[in-house]
Write a structure and sequence with these properties.
The complex is a heterodimer of chains A (85) and B (271). Chain A has 85 residues and is α+β, with helices and mostly antiparallel strands. Chain A contains two helices and two strands, in the order H-H-E-E. Chain A is rod-shaped, with a radius of gyration of 26 Å. Chain B has 14 helices and eight strands. Chain B has an eight-stranded mixed beta sheet, sandwiched between helices. Classes of the chains: A alpha+beta (85), B alpha/beta (271).
Chain lengths: 85, 271
Amino acid sequence: MSFFGLFKRRDLQPGTAPVARERLQVLLTHERANSSRMNLLSEMRKDIIDAITRHVSVTPEAVKVRIERRDRLSILRVAVDLPAQ
Amino acid sequence: MSKVVVVTSGKGGVGKTTSTAALGAALALSGKNVVVVDFDVGLRNLDLVMGAERRVVYDLINVAQGNAKLHQALIKDKRIETLSLLAASQTRDKDALSEKGLARVIKELRGQFDWIICDSPAGIERGAVMAMRHADAAVIVTNPEVSSVRDSDRIIGLLDAKTERAAKGELVEKHLLITRFDPARAGRGDMLRVEDVMDILSVPLLGIIPESDQVLRASNLGQPVTLANPLSAPARAYADAARRLIGESVAMNVPHDRFNLINKIFGGRAA
């Protein structure tokens, strides 16, 4: 490496900020969608519990709601532990 | 009309406490009645940055639990008459602060102060949520760096979900405060630009605080940077930010220290 190369090298390094910007934009789009999905789940869970407790008396802990994501569809699974009669 | 402002960030070490002290002092200098409240229960530090660490007798938790009166816990600043501090507890655990107790303290503070500035703990757990709970406005402190921007985005989501205002279907007024900004590195393309951070977070800009030795010097002395060296670049940037918070329109720029070059040449001992 030439003597002047020592001085030039730094200038030749491309700026890294555009990469940071790009990565953040991709990541945050994904994370925001995820967090709104979490909100959707908790809203649905509330409504499901309300609907069930109108007919059967269950505690909120007895209702398990989750979304399973597959390739082409998502599955909403609701499991309710009903009290023994 | 009193205003509750939370200074928050998600990420630790980005300058929440420094900003709380600096903005609080700047607002108080303009004649407003201001209280700065430390919500970092167990890890209080605002008292230290304000230089009042030896004057703390009662704290926020004592008042919230009814073991002390508010006036016993408020520490009046010795430099600015209109500035007070409400410290966090150093010994109690973070769950010692109850929703009900906090609501009562905030109501009482609203009766006495124009501005109630809440210094949030880092994280997105209960402590951070309690600090933002009663906020009318939020100052989101962000470093131009990927992890800080990401955490700020999370905090913005919480402001829209977990505050009293959100519960009433109202919005918390949001302000972006970019700290530790280095115009030279941003110019070289090695630091996110202010516009990048604003674009990504979609929050209007309150101010740009340049990276500066003056911030550490001020905290060493236990002085808000706006009082320690009012002519320094970060102090001017905070003073401008405080004026924007009040609603004044102030041209946005990044102040720089005029003595910077001299400092560098003479080993940082000038000025």
